[in-house]
Amino acid sequence: GAMGTPLLRSDAFRLALCYVDDRRGSREGREHEAMLAFYPSNTELAQGISLVGLARAYSSFVCSFGQDTPGTNGSQAFRPGPPCVMEAEHTMWCVLEMEAHIWLTLIASRHWATGGLSTESMQQTMGALHALVTLLHGPVNTLLQQDPSGATAQRCLQPMLDEAGARLASAGMKDPASLLNPLGLQHGLALMPTSRQLFLASQSLVNQLLLAGSPGPCAVTGAMVCWQGHVLWSSLALRDSEALALLTGL
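C-alpha cells predicted for CCZ1/INTU/HSP4 first Longin domain-containing protein:
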C-alpha cells in the first residue's frame, strides 16, 4: 500500500510536501492531474499518486465526521478547518485544506524530526509555507482561474515546495518560522524596511528571475535585490547573501 512505498521506506527519507486540488484528477488514469506540486520533485509519479490518494482518502474519512463542510465552518467565508493527522510507525502525516478545494499534505519521518515533530509544528509549518505562497503568487485558486490547465499554478508552486522542502530538510521541524524569512533563522543580515508595494515588487522581481530561462547552460538558481547597499530581498543562502551584501556596500 501507500504506507510502504519505496519513498517512505528509504532510510534517506525526511519529508514530503504536496499541493492537491480535490476537484481535479477524479477520472481513472488522470489521478496525477490533482497534484499541483510535489516534493521531492524526483519522486516517481506512481509513488506520488499513491501517497496523495491515501492522504485524500484519509482526509475525506476524517472530515465526514464533522458537521460543517471542510474549510467553511458553516459560513460562506473560507477558514481552514482542523488538520487531519495520521500517525504511522515511521511517519507522521498532516493534511490541511489551505483554500477551498486546495489541500497541502506534509509527511515527515518521525526518526528524522525527533522531538520537534508535533501536530502544532506541522500545522505552523504548512501555514507559514502557504502564507509565503500567497504573498508571492496570490491565492492558488486565483492561479487556477487564470489558467484552468493548472500549468501556471504548477510553475509557481513547484519551486516553492522545492525551496521549502530543502530548507526544512536541513533545519528540521523545530523552527517553522524559518520559512518566513528567506535569509534563514536567527541571523544579523536584515531586510531593509520598505512599503508593502515595494516589498511585493521585490518579491515579484525575484520570482520572475528564478522562473526565467537562461540562454546559456547555467540556470538561474538564486537572486538578490539591493538598493544603495541595502538588501530588499534574497533567495540565496545566508553566507552568499552576506557576501553579496558586503560587495554591494563597497
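Residues 180-188 have pLDDT under 50 and may be disordered.
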